[in-house]
Every structure is written in C-alpha cells, then in structure tokens.
C-alpha cells in the first residue's frame, strides 16, 4: 500500500508571513499524524524561508512515524541533518528565487558531490532519496551514487494542460519507475499532486511513498488538517485497491 508523506512547509510559510509563532508546523505535523500520515516531510532551505532549525529539532523529537528532510547539498544543511538524524533525507535542487522546487536534481552533473554525501548518511543508517526527473540517465546516476530511493518528480504530469500531455507524462513516470526497480532502487513520487490527480499516480506508478503538501494544507484551511489528511489517505487506499484488482 502506498504511504502518504505530508509536507508541512506551507504551514511554516504562513507563520513567516507575519514572522510570529503561529501557525506552528510542529502542531500541524501532530494533527497530520492523527489523520493517518505515514511520513512527515519538511524542507530546510538555506534561506530559512519557512522551516527553521527549531522546527527540525522539535519534529525530530515528536514525529513517531517517519521524518523525511528535504535538503540541498549545502555544507551547513548537511551538518545539521547529520546531527539531527531524521529517518530519511531527500536531496533536492534549490534555487533562492524559486517559489517551490522547479525540477529534479541533476544527479549526473553532481555525482562526485552526492556519492560521498550519500555514503555519510547511510553510514548513520539514514535512508537517502534523490528527487529526480524520470529520465534514464538520472535514474542510473542515482543508483551509481548509492541512493536507496528515488523520488520521481511528478510536476510535469501535474502541470499538463491536455489529456494527451498528461498521459504522456504518466507513461514517462511509469517507465521511470520500472527502470528504477530494475536497477534495485525503491520508488517514491511527489510534487504538484492533488486530490484530483493523485489517482493515476497511485494506480500506474506504484510508489512506496507519495509526498504531498500544498493541496493537503490548502484543503485543511476549510476542513482542518486531520480531516484533510484522512481524505487523501482514503483516496490513496481506494486507488491502491483498484491497482491491485484491476478495477
């Protein structure tokens, strides 16, 4: 069954809009856990635009499911992550001017940097995932670098404006997931997933984990975090069963 990772960054973004103490992403994580979240995901950026060290430290102490830390390869962030030891780290590309992560990590060009970093984390029994586009060369490079997981970037699928484009991107993701498994990699997926488009991803990709943030937090404005997570979990469960039964 596909697991749900809930990204609480957007709660911290709202907090930072007034530079105050609320809403607290740590509280949001607790409510997401009550709603059935299997993983809590946060992204500690170099510019600290939303999640801060305080959040990482408290979540490390209070998340009893699985804490997944998205991060760049910046030395400062690497050392913080090694010190706090979340259950999983996901290396992602990071640009200061972007609103959200815009594409997958270029593992091919960063292999010499990533290889030694991945080794350091795995020596501490921290699972390492690489957020990549579903391209054969990036998948191969991820395996060669020593990653255990790849998280396939679903943004192009989510942003498709026609059914033909969506089906094309879905096939690329399905093919990328298949190649990843053939090479011994485990497969996660995420970015831009919503209550409306998550079904085909669950049914066709068979990812172990889906990491979803904006859509769940947006829904939570109206129904609360616990209910919003419950609704997404129900959708994932429904489509997981459909994938197994062919229905």
Spell out the key features of this protein.
TIM Barrel, 247 residues, globular, alpha/beta, 53% helix
Describe the structure.
This protein is α/β, with parallel strands linked by helices. The protein is built from 11 helices and 8 strands. It has one domain: Aldolase class I (TIM Barrel, Alpha-Beta Barrel). Helices cover 53% and strands 16% of the residues. It has an 8-stranded parallel barrel, surrounded by 9 helices. The protein starts with a strand and ends with a helix.
End-to-end span in angstroms?
Answer: 16 Å
Described by strand count, sense and barrel closure, the largest sheet is:
8 strands, parallel, barrel
Estimated helix fraction = 40-55%
Question: Do you know the CATH topology?
Answer: TIM Barrel
Q: CATH class, anyone?
A: Alpha Beta
Mean pLDDT across residues: 95
Q: Write down the Rg.
A: 17 Å
Coarse shape: globular
| Overall CATH architecture | Alpha-Beta Barrel
> How many alpha or pi helices?
11
Largest sheet, spatial ordering of strands: 1-2-3-4-5-6-7-8
- Total E-strand runs: 8
**Unreliable stretches, pLDDT < 50, 5 or more residues?**
none
Task: Chart the SSEs and their pairings.
Layout: E1 3-7, H1 9-18, H2 25-34, E2 39-43, H3 53-62, E3 67-71, H4 75-84, E4 88-91, H5 107-123, E5 127-132, H6 136-145, E6 149-153, H7 155-159, H8 163-182, E7 186-190, H9 198-205, E8 209-212, H10 214-223, H11 225-245
Parallel strand pairs: 1-2, 1-8, 2-3, 3-4, 4-5, 5-6, 6-7, 7-8
């Amino acid at each position: 069954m596909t697991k749900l990772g809930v990204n609480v960054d957007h709660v911290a973004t709202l907090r930072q809009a007034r530079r105050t103490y609320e809403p607290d992403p740590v509280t949001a994580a607790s409510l997401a856990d009550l709603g059935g979240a299997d993983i809590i995901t946060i992204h500690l950026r170099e510019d600290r635009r939303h999640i801060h060290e305080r959040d990482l430290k408290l979540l490390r102490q209070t998340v009893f499911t699985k804490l997944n830390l998205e991060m760049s390869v910046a030395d400062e962030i690497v050392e913080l992550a090694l010190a706090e030891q979340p259950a999983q780290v996901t290396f992602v590309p990071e640009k200061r001017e972007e609103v959200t992560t815009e594409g997958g990590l270029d593992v091919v060009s960063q292999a010499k940097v990533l290889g030694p970093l991945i080794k350091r984390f795995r020596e501490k029994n921290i699972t390492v995932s690489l957020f990549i586009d579903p391209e054969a060369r990036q998948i191969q490079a991820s395996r060669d670098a020593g990653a255990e997981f790849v998280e396939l970037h679903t943004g192009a699928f989510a942003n498709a404006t026609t059914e033909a484009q969506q089906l094309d991107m879905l096939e690329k993701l399905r093919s990328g997931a298949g190649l990843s498994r053939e090479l011994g990699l485990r497969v996660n997926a995420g970015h831009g997933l919503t209550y409306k488009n998550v079904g085909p991803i669950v049914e066709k990709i068979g990812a172990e984990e889906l990491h979803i943030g904006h859509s769940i937090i947006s829904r939570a404005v109206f129904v609360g975090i616990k209910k919003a997570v419950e609704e997404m979990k129900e959708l994932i469960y429904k489509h997981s069963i459909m994938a197994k039964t062919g229905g």
